[in-house]
């Protein structure tokens, strides 16, 4: 690569990087929150749902996603293991396995339902109108577990295995940030989002529920 080509490639990379940073930080007057959640006493820090509860009237009464969300049944697991959605969203439950499943949510869940058994190729859809935790179980396979978190906010993210998360496009204001994990006690902390400026938080979850 000659130096001119190198310069052009470098220029494109810088431009792409700036675009990406501008999108995350919000050229539209929004801000973003990034951070890491450390979960004590579990294999890794994945599958924590982080969400923002609006203060000062911010982020209240969001519109549900108009397209359906997806909770697959694949290789005898729920995929994804945890799924945050806005209240009022519809979730499709396909069966991508060769065996039959019988998905249901137990009595204590925010939305109780039982889909019955159905084969591959069939998709059943459920609408979640009430916020809260909906554990998922299968009558056929007792070790299949999953969770749906129905939220009153569109500002949420799920951590990766390193506990990292990012929530972009957040209107400036004060929020209470919640971190939820299926096995460990939840935690909350106050955060302030500023336009065009990333806010970084570190959260630690410890102690069994
Ligand atoms: Cu099953």
Overall description:
The protein is mainly beta. The chain has a single domain, classed as Cupredoxins -  blue copper proteins (Immunoglobulin-like, Sandwich), CATH 2.60.40.420. It is 11% helix and 45% strand. It contains one helix and 17 strands. The protein has one helix spanning 3-25, and strands at residues 31-39, 49-54, 69-70, 72-74, 77-79, 82-86, 90-94, 101-104, 114-118, 123-127, 132-138, 145-151, 156-158, 164-170, 173-180, 187-193, 198-205. The strands form five sheets. Strands 6-12-11-8-9 form a five-stranded mixed sheet, with no helix packed on it. Strands 13-2-15-16 form a four-stranded antiparallel sheet, with no helix packed on it. A three-stranded mixed sheet has the order 14-1-17, covered by helices on one side. β15 (173-180) and β16 (187-193) form a beta hairpin. The longest helix has 23 residues, at 3-25. The model is unreliable at 9-19 (pLDDT under 50). Residues 101, 138, 140-141, 144 line the site of copper (II) ion.
Strand content: 35-45%
Order of helices and strands: HEEEEEEEEEEEEEEEEE
**Structural class estimated from helices and strands:** mainly beta
> So what's the CATH class?
Mainly Beta
Strand order of the largest sheet: 6-12-11-8-9
How would you sum up the major sheet? Answer: 5 strands, mixed
Provide the list of bound ligands, each named once. Answer: copper (II) ion
What's the CATH H-level superfamily name?
Cupredoxins -  blue copper proteins
CATH-defined architecture: Sandwich
Helix content: 10-25%
Low-confidence stretches: 9-19
Distance between the termini: 57 Å
Radius of gyration: 20 Å
Mean pLDDT: 87
The outline comes out as: globular
- DSSP helix count? 1
Total beta strand runs: 17
| CATH domain topology | Immunoglobulin-like
Number of structural units classed as domains: 1
